[in-house]
Amino acid sequence: MNTLPALFLSHGAPDLTLREGAVTDFLRSLHEQFPKPKAILVISAHWLTDSPMVSAAEHPRTIHDFSGFPEPLYRLNYPAPGAPELAERVLSLLTQAKIPCEIHPSRGLDHGTWTPLILAYPAADIPVTQLSIQYYRDPRYHWQLGQALAPLRQEGVLIIGSGGITHNLDAFAEDYNAPPPDWVQKFDQWLAKTIEQGNWEDLIGYRQLAPYAPENHPTEEHLLPLFVALGAVGATAKGIQLHRSYTYGAFSMAAYAFN
């Protein structure tokens, strides 16, 4: 079986699935770029726990974990089967790496997972499960978390970190097509250059090195899944930018593949 890349996808606002444009076109074509995975493991910025948890739900429900959006959004359903066997494998790998982990028997799919997948894999015929992130831990910890998951890539599992390259809700514009401010673009450009150069130590230390890091990430949970995806490939990873665009001004929708 072909070794799959690890991906980072910016999932944007929940109403992405109701929009048309560059990022939705990209996500709809994503399945054409890689072999069909046996299962998908998503590390979502919207599942925060003290220590890692992985869902073993056989039929994960679609969680509408947001408010104030158009009513049709709440009718969307992503009925992908769960992946309890993959959950057990994740538990085993993290335990071997001496990273405490627990199984959640019924956790569903939050919009960090189903927003990109409903566009990229609309048939919903691939088993999917989620792994939580630890909001109080740093990027290096999440990189190490990804390292423990690396064998999954040889087992037909597509590892997706789902978050946001930039994520400042206070700068959220009312206009979906609002242009990004300079401070968003400069951070986005720094991240793209650092990934292109393969300078992972600088990336891990982005908080101190990247321009406007605190402005783009007042809290870190939307960038932490990036480090899990990177760690799943390791220090020799090559990062490729798959997509770049912006929504609501403050949201970079950049996406990356690591091989």
Provide a short characterization of the protein structure.
With 259 residues, the protein is α/β, with parallel strands linked by helices. The protein has 9 helices and 10 strands. The strands form 3 sheets. A 6-stranded mixed β-sheet has the order 5-2-6-1-10-7, with helices on both faces.
Please describe what this structure looks like:
31% of the residues lie in helices and 18% in strands. The strands form 3 sheets. Strands 5-2-6-1-10-7 form a 6-stranded mixed beta sheet, sandwiched between helices. With 259 residues, it is α/β, with parallel strands linked by helices. Strand 3, helix 2 and strand 4 form a beta-alpha-beta unit. The chain has helices spanning 22-29, 84-96, 111-120, 139-149, 182-197, 200-204, 206-209, 213-216, 224-231, and strands spanning 6-10, 39-48, 53-55, 102-104, 128-133, 157-163, 239-243, 246-247, 251-252, 255-258. 49% of the residues are buried.
